[in-house]
Amino acid sequence: MRNFIALKIDLDSNYVALSATSLVATFTLMVPSSSSQDATVQGTDGKELAIAPGSQFAFERVDLSQIKVKSKPGECVYVIGHSG
Question: Cβ atoms within 10 A of the Cβ of 71, count?
Fold first, then answer.
């Protein structure tokens, strides 16, 4: 069974996990166009990826608790997808 996931993650200058607990999902990470700088995403391998404001990045069957993101305080990202 698939469950709908819609999250707003408030960011800080330190990395924040997309989920506090293990949650495997297929989802799109969206950086609002109103953001003033890129969001930096860090995966389990430690590599970083900058996602520009107004952009989206797709993930397939990934544990949200293993993906971390940061930007400047006051910015946010959105996670839209489904579990399973």
Answer: 24
Q: How far is CA 18 from CA 2, 36, 62, 65, in A?
A: 18, 20, 11, 6
Q: What's 16's domain CATH number?
A: 2.60.120.10
Q: What pLDDT, on the 0 to 100 scale, is given for residue 2? A: 83
Total count of domains within the chain = 1
- Residue 83: CB atoms within 10 A of its CB come to 15
Cβ neighbourhood burial of 78 (10 Å; 0-12, 13-18, 19+)? middle
pLDDT digits (tens, 9 = 90+) for 40-82: 999 889 999 999 999 999 999 999 999 999 999 999 999 999 9
